């Protein structure tokens, strides 16, 4: 029983570090986007819509992001108002439009990706690729366990 309590405590400390990491990432995202007229949320939706350079529905983008369709729709509408996304007819489903990133949106994404890469290289510094990959595997494993636990407790 003692071992369980110790591991739980360590896991709680890891959660606190993750919360702090998330706050830092939100601040970095704000810094990377603040002079370009978009928010971090808009960048995320623009990236999800621009992935593979193929038009997709808002519902598809929302699933990729793990977000509610309605929240992604609101952000996509704001991007469309800025001319960064356009809606197209969907031959597969007349009720649902496809969203496509415009040329201006692709230009903006390229700027943001360049900034992000420069920031990531500077931040990663001398961390080894193996260490980063191991951290990524652990975070993914924890994320998946949280999803399974959440799904099990929803019923």
Number of separate strands: 2
CATH topology of the largest domain: Arc Repressor Mutant, subunit A
The helix content is over 70%
Radius of gyration over C-alpha positions, nearest whole angstrom: 19 Å
Instruction: Give the overall silhouette.
Output: globular
Strand content: 5-15%
What is the helix/strand order?
HHHHEEHH
CATH homology superfamily of the largest domain? Winged helix-like DNA-binding domain superfamily/Winged helix DNA-binding domain
**What would you call the structural class?**
mainly alpha
Count of DSSP H/I helices: 6
Question: What's the overall average pLDDT, rounded?
Answer: 91
Q: Numbering strands along the chain, what is their spatial order in the largest sheet? A: 1-2
Question: Regarding CATH, which class of the largest domain?
Answer: Mainly Alpha
Structure description:
This protein has 155 residues and is mostly helical. Helices cover 72% and strands 5% of the residues. It folds into 2 domains: 1-35; 40-117, Winged helix-like DNA-binding domain superfamily/Winged helix DNA-binding domain (Arc Repressor Mutant, subunit A, Orthogonal Bundle). Strands 1-2 form a two-stranded antiparallel sheet. The longest helix is centred in the N-terminal third of the chain and has 32 residues, at 2-33.
